[in-house]
Amino acid sequence: MLNADKLDFMPKKWYNIVPDLPVPISPPRDRSPDSSSIELLNRVIPKEVLRQEFTSSRYEDIPDEVLEQYVQIGRPTPLIRARNLERHLRFDGRIFFKYEGATATGSHKINTAIPQAFYAAREGIKEITTETGAGQWGTATALAASLNGLRSNVFMVRVSHDQKPLRKTIMNLYGANVFASPSPMTSFGKGILQNNPNHPGSLGIAISEAVQYALDNDFRYLLGSVMNSVITHQSIIGLETKSQLADLGIEPDTMIGCVGGGSNFCGFSYPMIDNKNIEMIASAATEVPKFSKGEFRYDNIDTAGILPQLKMLTLGSDYVPEGIYSGGLRYHGVAPSLSLLIRGGRIETSEVTESASMEAMKIFSRTQGIIPAPESAHAIATVIDYVKNPSNRGKDVVFNLSGHGLMDLSIFGDGKV
User: Is the overall model pTM greater than 0.85, yes or no?
Assistant: First the structure.
């Protein structure tokens, strides 16, 4: 039976921004006239997820079974006022954060993993694959698969796999097989390792391996970010935030979130995108400068070019990022819808260095008691810079704390912080 008390506060539909964009998204395309990558999606993506990917419907019903699992893993998540951070920064406005770290897996990623796994299981699929950078998406996929009776296989970017062994342990505990990518499990991974046995990996490579492994074994592949269907599922964040702010009688002045591929920022901000009074700022890593140096063009989603190309801001699918600790921010591209809104000026951007994000991580931990994920710390660093600007005095700022960082503490080396 569904938890009636919590369900009273749960949105019953997801929001899809596609019909409300100022210009249409360019359709996916094959990388060459001889390829059939779009048809390939029908082989590796659950049918209902693929339908949602291309729908023009503004709202999609959330199945009761998915709502039940959302409640089980901790939704709705809290909206919290960061009073101590306000005092520390001597800010005379208000700072709120939506705390996605309150979910069972500690991040927003579970919001789309659950429906994708549910749809796959409903179609009779027994096993799924995916990739992960920092480990949050792999963890979410592993749990979602377990909740829906599926086996899971996760290709984890090698540098993160080596940096974050506890993430692998958690995924194993949830029943997942975890492979450091590039791996010997696929022909694509083997080819990379032959050229460079110590290759650090990238999300683009891990995506290629996960898709190829699904194709080779007739499994299904779950999408972690970038795609419209994922962003639609993540709108649960913004829909809850919108309702929680309304209950407080607050219309925010500014909304801020970090961007890897774009799923948490988009899910957080899109349900309020029609309010032109709200300033929206997307925060990324200086070391992966997709906002400042990315080109808006068709590019591969994955390094091998197995999946269709998308028109988006991109550093190039062969881009090998620096081994910064924020694995979720290392992706080479930006979701097509977010790319359009950035180019159109509706959404502003910020790029933050790893050292600045680490300092923000310390400040937030010491003032609020919550250790943020390194990715979320980039958003916090942007918040700190924003409220220090005298012109922003007295404003109401809301940011998405997309996950906690309890599994990421080796960022501080020997523990001296």
Answer: yes
Q: Are 255 and 279 in contact (CB under 8 A)?
A: yes
Tokens of 354: 């790893």
Helix or strand holding residue 310 (H, E): strand 309-314
Span 83-113, pLDDT tens digits: 999 999 999 999 999 999 999 999 999 999 9
**Amino acid found at 117:** A
Q: Provide the 8-state DSSP code for 232.
A: H
Residue 90 DSSP code? T
The residue length of the chain stands at 417
Q: Measured between alpha carbons, how far is 145 from 129 in angstroms, rounded to an integer?
A: 10
Q: Residue 351 phi/psi, 5° resolution?
A: -120, 130
The residues pairing with 396 across neighbouring beta strands, listed in sequence order, are 94
Query: Domain segments of the chain: what residues?
Result: 69-106+228-412
Provide the CATH topology of domain 69-106+228-412.
Rossmann fold (3.40.50)
Residue 311, both tokens: 């028109």
β-strands 13-15, 59-61 pairing? antiparallel
Q: Report the mean per-residue pLDDT for the chain.
A: 92
> DSSP secondary structure string, 337-373?
HHHHHHHTTSSEEEEE-HHHHHHHHHHHHHHHS--B-
CA end-to-end span of the chain, whole Å? 46
Helix (H, G, I), strand (E, B) or coil at 117: helix
